[in-house]
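anyone seen this seq b4? input:
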Amino acid sequence: MKTLTTLAAMVLSTTSAFAQPAMVARTDKGEVLVDGRGMSLYTFEKEVGL
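predicted toks r here
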């Protein structure tokens, strides 16, 4: 089990090394976050109940 956990940690750490950083692009509506291909990135926040 310890080997499986170590292997999983290694795989997860290497995939983030190849991730491209987010960039800011200008649009008619203002600045937005985009990925390396220019696709919009979204952030989500937990809604607060009324």
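The longest helix spans residues 2-17. The longest strand covers residues 23-27. kinda curious what u guys think
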